[in-house]
Automatic annotation (TrEMBL):
InterPro entries with a match to the protein in the record: Homeodomain-like_sf (IPR009057), HTH-type_TetR-like_transc_reg (IPR050109), HTH_TetR (IPR001647), Tet_transcr_reg_TetR-rel_C_sf (IPR036271), Tscrpt_reg_YcdC_C (IPR013573)
DNA-binding region positions on the chain: 45-64
Alphabetical list of PROSITE patterns matching this protein: HTH_TETR_2 (PS50977)
Coiled-coil stretches: none
UniProt keyword DNA-binding present: yes
MF (Gene Ontology): DNA binding
Entry keyword annotation includes Cell membrane: no
Organism ancestry: Bacteria, Pseudomonadati, Pseudomonadota, Betaproteobacteria, Burkholderiales
One of the GO biological process terms: negative regulation of DNA-templated transcription
UniProt protein name: TetR family transcriptional regulator
Keywords: DNA-binding
Domain HTH tetR-type per the UniProt entry, residue ranges: 22-82
Length: 226
């Protein structure tokens, strides 16, 4: 029995359809992330996302049959980007100060460029991560453990002061993500409509200084000095 194969003319069309679908799904997710950030999961409807995306509800549901499926896609993309920045700590062969500076820069860049994504993730966690907790455990914990191992190697080599790396990372996450999740409050305090790039640069410098001070190895006096 012979196997039917697509003709050379049909193959490019099939590929184009796949690419078009991927792009449309990405476009829908890009619209949905802001709606979920503004309205929360419970307050968001498929109809509202479809209207913002310029699609009919039925058309959108062809790609995302349920609101939870769309929410899952949004959080998957958010976590992909968030974890990408965690990988900066994997460069254990570099100096800790430079690795942490790059890590903080990457986290703040995410807050500046993807504030809606950061807020959706924060809202899910604040609500108890009931819809996405399993994925967070499965994907965040292994990478966090890997980063902690890097700190342990630095501590053993005398490159950084003994420190609870887990809680240091928690503090870095909180400080950098607050520039997205609480940017409205910060802007009000600073008496402007929104945070500027200089605000992010100033925040970066302050956070880097605090973190480097926390990991700095105390200078011991020369034993031979009078």
């Amino acid at each position: 029995m012979s196997t039917i194969k697509p003709t050379t003319e049909a193959a490019p069309k099939i590929k184009r359809r796949v690419l078009n679908r991927d792009k449309l799904e990405a476009d829908i997710a890009a619209v949905a992330v802001r709606v979920f950030a503004e309205c929360g999961y419970e307050g968001t409807s498929i109809a509202a996302v479809a209207e913002k995306a310029g699609l009919s509800k039925q058309n959108l549901m062809y790609y995302f049959p349920t609101k939870q499926a769309l929410y899952q896609r949004v959080l998957d993309e958010v976590l992909d980007e968030w974890l990408e920045r965690m990988e900066h700590l994997a460069a254990e062969d570099q100096e800790p100060a430079e690795v942490l500076r790059t890590y903080i820069q990457a986290k703040l860049k995410f807050s500046r460029e993807q504030p809606w994504a950061s807020r959706v993730y924060a809202m899910e966690v604040i609500s108890g991560a009931q819809l996405y907790g399993t994925q967070i455990q499965r994907r965040v914990i292994p990478l966090l453990r890997k980063d902690i191992e890097v700190f342990e190697k630095w501590i053993a080599a005398g490159k950084v002061a003994p420190i609870n790396a887990t809680h240091l990372l928690f503090a870095i996450w909180a400080m950098t993500q607050s520039y997205a999740d609480f940017s409205a409050q910060m802007a009000l305090v600073l008496n402007r409509k929104q945070l500027t790039k200089k605000d992010f640069d100033d925040g970066e410098q302050a956070i880097v200084n605090m973190v480097l001070a926390a990991i700095s190895v105390p200078q011991r006096a020369d034993a031979g000095a009078p």
